Amino acid sequence: xxxxxxxxxxxxxxxxxxxxxxxxxxxxxxxxxxxxxxxxxxxxxxxxxxxxxxxxxxxxxxxxxxxxxxxxxxxxxxxxxxxxxxxxxxxxxxxxxxxxxxxxxxxxxxxxx
Amino acid sequence: xxxxxxxxxxxxxxxxxxxxxxxxxxxxxxxxxxxxxxxxxxxxxxxxxxxxxxxxxxxxxxxxxxxxxxxxxxxxxxxxxxxxxxxxxxxxxxxxxxxxxxxxxxxxxxxxxx
Lengths: 113, 114
Fold this sequence. Notes:
The complex is a heterodimer.
Chain A: E1 5-7, E2 10-13, E3 19-24, E4 31-38, E5 42-50, E6 53-57, E7 64-68, E8 74-78, E9 87-94, E10 103-104, E11 108-112
Chain B: E1 4-7, E2 10-14, E3 19-25, E4 32-38, E5 45-51, E6 56-59, E7 62-67, E8 72-77, E9 86-92, E10 103-104, E11 108-113
Parallel strand pairs in B: 2-11
Antiparallel strand pairs in B: 1-3, 3-8, 4-5, 4-9, 6-7, 7-8, 9-10, 9-11
């Protein structure tokens, strides 16, 4: 069974640009959540989706947004990139709406220059 | 919101010895507590989890204990091996309807000395 797949693995963007990251969950999983990982702040929750609906959102500015498609695949978008957005962005999928037993992908390493 | 404290930040043990990592949480509504292992260049890997209606759970060399009254939970690894070297994260969340995302501790870098 394939794991959570995130694309691209690495990305370099310039300040002010926008970026879209993609996540394909484990087959059959319907819940997808996103996290930002930085050395200073650690792992921080961004948002969670189930059946194409955003269930929860973490404490991030409106520049961070996401969506989930009918096949459970998810994308997150960051607009007007800032240097501080440089981080590892992780996607996790879970089987159902509880969000328990979340399995993470390898992440997308975003560098903003 | 929830706050999770994790100790120690670095733990060095001899191969074959036991390792214990401790976490405390602040929100009494939290009822789901997973532990993740992260190796360099990889995403976090779920190694064990526990719900608040259970006090202890064991899976081979790994065990987790939960004290709801004191709001703390711990990861125990016995007979440590070199491949146990990694960063370990504890997390907490309120699972179910209206659930929040996982709140993670800052991580423990576990070093297994040969």
